[in-house]
Design goal:
By secondary structure, this protein is mainly α. The chain contains eight helices and two strands. A two-stranded antiparallel sheet has the order 1-2. Helix 3 packs antiparallel against helix 4, helix 3 runs parallel beside helix 6 and helix 7 packs across helix 8. It is globular.
């Protein structure tokens, strides 16, 4: 019998309380590298979430058929298959963004978030809960990317752009702090997000 309360729990835990980026500190290389622009976060977040959802779904569906001794190679093959789909689709339909993200799309294969959730959750749980877990973790990962990209691009260039349009811009009198586009700005923004997330989750646990 499907437990609707548990489905909700598996989804919401990935947003803040067990956010893979802000709590588990997993997948930081890609987050810090591509979050200089808000639009980068949209594409990478959607790509990683797609791979995570379908990898967890497939592994959960065939988990009883996977020998324990060779489970990791099988997980890698499953993940790599969906990464290839994303990689080829992005090359075909968004070549400009594919050039911007570069190696970070193929490297989704070794993203610890995806391999970790497949191993820890999908390999042990039914499909419905695995999909919920993947949606929550993927959404949490994407939120972290988007917030970091929004803050860094806004403070670093004075405006935020996506799909060729300006979403928001600061007054012309504002002097952009270019450090936020660089790696020091990435670490500074990331530190503040961790602090804010811990403050929010601690308030919710009281």
């Amino acid at each position: 019998m499907v437990d609707l309360k548990r489905i909700g729990h598996e989804f919401y835990k990935g947003l803040f309380r067990e956010n893979v980026v802000l709590v588990s500190l997993i997948g930081l290389c890609s987050v810090l590298a591509v979050s200089s622009r808000f639009e980068n976060g949209i594409y990478l977040g959607v790509a990683a979430t797609f791979v995570l959802i379908f990898s967890e779904l497939l592994v959960s569906a065939i988990r009883k058929l996977i020998p324990k001794e060779i489970r990791i190679p099988i997980f890698i093959v499953v993940i790599a298959s969906f990464v290839t789909i994303v990689d080829l689709t992005m090359q075909a339909y968004s070549p400009s963004m594919y050039k911007v993200l570069g190696i970070w799309i193929p490297l989704i294969v070794v993203n610890c978030m995806i391999l970790g959730r497949v191993e820890v959750f999908a390999y042990r749980e039914p499909i419905i809960y695995s999909i919920s877990d993947a949606l929550g973790m993927g959404t949490g990962y994407t939120l972290a990317l988007l917030i970091m990209g929004f803050v860094r691009e806004l403070l670093g260039s004075g405006k935020v752009m996506a799909f060729g349009r300006t979403i928001i811009s600061l007054p012309s009198a504002y002097e952009p702090a270019s450090v936020f586009i660089l790696f020091p700005g990435a670490f500074l923004t990331f530190a503040f997000l961790i602090a804010i997330n811990r403050w929010l989750t601690s308030r919710g646990e009281r």
